[in-house]
Design a protein that fits this description.
Distance between the termini: 56 Å
Structural class: mainly alpha
Number of domains: 2
Shape: elongated
Largest sheet: none
Length: about 180
């Protein structure tokens, strides 16, 4: 029946476009008139959105990730960082060990702890510089026409987190060639 009728070129969806006041009337119907109810509805919507983001961060679902983590460039950066051991990811456990060594009343252990602090910091800086150089080269090669702004900083911040605590969760195993 509907196929027999010619379509109106002014109504490409098969029906006329609603007038402005009709469209506004439809949207207003879903908003509660009471301010408390509107606030409650907004909180529930925000809570649901945050739950989706938490699940996406845990599972890696690209659709619901926060804007900071979306896109092919950020996914590559995450995989690049997660594919190797990084010195910075061991900073917190090493810091605890060094702190305990510095509290012992032995002068030699205190001197050792100061030396360890210096070695750890130098290793983190060297590893970060190497990671920056190699990552920039890979990004320019793989994404020549994409916006790469902030990608290296994103990678360096990710290296500072222990692998278990990284969000979104690592999706590649260590040693994987990218």
């Amino acid at each position: 029946m509907l196929e027999d009728q010619p379509r109106d070129p002014q109504a490409p969806k098969g029906r006329p476009t609603p007038k402005r006041n009709e469209a506004q009337r439809r949207t207003r119907a879903t908003v509660p008139t009471d301010r408390k109810a509107a606030g409650k509805q907004a909180r529930e919507a925000r809570r649901a959105e945050m739950a989706k983001q938490r699940e996406a961060l845990a599972g890696g679902d690209e659709r619901y990730l926060p804007v900071r983590d979306k896109g092919p460039v950020r996914k590559f950066v995450r995989d690049y960082v997660d594919s190797r051991y990084r010195v910075a990811e061991f900073f917190l456990p090493l810091a605890v060990v060094i702190l305990v060594l510095s509290m012992i009343q032995n002068t030699q252990l205190r001197n050792l702890s100061l030396l360890l602090w210096m070695v750890v910091i130098v290793l983190i800086v060297v590893d970060s510089v190497i990671t920056t150089i190699l990552l920039r080269k890979q990004l320019r090669k793989r994404f020549p026409d994409k916006n790469l702004r902030g990608a290296v900083a994103y990678a360096l911040m990710r290296t500072l987190q222990m692998r278990r605590l990284r969000l979104p969760k690592p999706m590649v195993k260590r040693g994987v060639k990218l």
